[in-house]
Recover the amino acids of this structure.
């Protein structure tokens, strides 16, 4: 009997997803554990493994289809003794959900339209073999000066015969991201040259612009943050922390640490925040309608910028971990977050979030609460500033932090007590080691 492969729920908040890529074609034999597809969720792009064994009888949803509901059939698997040809469905592939336009026949199902939302799969998609990913990047991409582009951006460019060397990257240091390639495919005139280029848009023209398709991650981030600002009554508390003693303690600990251990300032901030949450437990809470959830551990989510968005991997029970362990965990989570290799349970949940923009030279900012959490800490850069001590002017390295709190669950006095405790641990770092 044929087995339907369903759109999986890869995170607790996932309701729909985008089928970014098929790694199998009709007629391919798969075994349990084989990676069959890449799904773009509200958090990241993740690989999907086969649960059952058999032969791919049909691909019911075309690569690039957006808004596919969790639990809907995306492919059909023929078991042993069944023929894939016998099970090839006569019905049309499932259309991409409500927001997608009506199906339009197209030669290639993946991102070949100028519209920012991909059209549903054409009728012939289940019986046709998806276009395989190229084995290497276009020849022009490998010549000349070094090209900074993500592997996904290179693959999409290769599949669409786009000269990636002509694409202007919007990532750090001009790195070419997926959204840059998709925008170039949607509007060939925005790049220097492509297969179907009809000219170059002059950047000096009045109102010059181009459209960038929003990824599923970007849409979900926008929706959640808009909901957070609309439903959670934010209030903000800001303090300055002198960090000279903290930096000196960090240097001493790094000098004495074994090989492979190197503490960052952010590791110490995570530890101080966790200790403060245990000391002021009313700040370690979230609003849930008729109830307030009080967390027993300081599960610290740290904001990590990734291609096309933001992800918040969690250090569970951070108050129970030493600085060396926090350093190891945070470094590993950040690396795998940028590579898109986190498991759903590693970036879902958490009781409190830290967003640190100090490395970019940002002095002070206010972050939007990560729902359903009750608070988030925005950390600015440490810099030398004049301070007054015992009536005398002095110079100290100062770091400004701002607590954004949900007033439904965290009162102003509670937020102030938490900041006072956090400041105490930062300015007297030996106390957070007790």
């Amino acid at each position: 009997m044929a087995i339907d492969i369903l759109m999986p729920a890869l995170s607790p908040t996932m309701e729909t997803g985008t089928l970014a890529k098929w790694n199998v074609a009709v007629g391919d034999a798969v075994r349990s554990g084989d990676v069959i597809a890449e799904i773009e969720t509200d958090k990241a792009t993740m690989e999907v493994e086969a649960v059952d064994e058999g032969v791919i009888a049909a691909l019911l949803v075309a690569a690039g289809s957006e808004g596919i509901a969790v639990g809907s059939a995306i492919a059909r698997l023929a078991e042993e003794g069944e023929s894939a040809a016998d099970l090839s469905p006569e019905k049309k592939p499932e259309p991409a959900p409500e927001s997608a336009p009506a199906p339009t026949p197209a030669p290639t199902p993946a991102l070949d339209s100028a519209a920012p939302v991909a059209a549903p799969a054409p009728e012939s998609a289940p019986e046709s073999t998806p276009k395989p990913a190229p084995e290497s990047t276009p020849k022009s991409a490998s010549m000349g000066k070094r090209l900074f582009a993500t592997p996904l951006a290179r693959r999409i460019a290769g599949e669409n015969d786009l000269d990636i060397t002509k694409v202007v990257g919007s990532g750090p240091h001009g790195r070419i991201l997926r959204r840059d390639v998709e925008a170039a495919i949607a509007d060939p005139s925005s790049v220097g040259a492509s297969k179907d280029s009809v000219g170059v848009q002059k950047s000096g023209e009045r109102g010059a612009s181009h459209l960038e398709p929003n990824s599923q991650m970007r849409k979900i981030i926008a929706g959640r943050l808009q909901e957070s600002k609309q439903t959670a009554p934010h209030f903000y508390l800001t303090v300055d922390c002198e960090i000279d003693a903290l930096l000196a303690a960090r240097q001493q600990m790094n000098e004495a640490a074994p090989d492979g251990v190197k503490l960052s300032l952010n590791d110490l901030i995570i530890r101080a925040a966790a200790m403060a949450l245990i000391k002021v437990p009313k700040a370690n809470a979230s609003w849930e309608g008729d109830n307030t959830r009080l967390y027993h551990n300081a599960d610290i989510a740290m904001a990590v910028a990734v291609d096309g968005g933001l992800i918040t991997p969690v250090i569970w029970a951070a108050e129970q971990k030493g600085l060396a362990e926090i350093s190891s965990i945070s470094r590993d989570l950040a690396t795998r977050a940028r590579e898109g290799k986190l498991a759903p349970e590693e970036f879902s949940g958490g009781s409190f979030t830290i967003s640190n923009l100090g490395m970019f030279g940002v002095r002070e900012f206010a972050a939007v609460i990560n729902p359903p959490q009750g608070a988030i800490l925005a950390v600015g850069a440490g810099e030398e500033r004049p301070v007054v001590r015992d009536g005398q002017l002095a110079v100290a390295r100062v770091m400004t932090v701002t607590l954004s709190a949900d007033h439904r669950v965290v009162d102003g006095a509670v937020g102030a007590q938490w900041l006072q405790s956090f400041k105490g641990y930062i300015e007297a770092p030996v106390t957070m080691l007790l």
Notes: The radius of gyration is 25 Å. Residues 246 and 429 are 6 Å apart (CA to CA). The helical segments are 151-159, 178-186, 216-231, 244-256, 265-279, 323-338, 412-427.
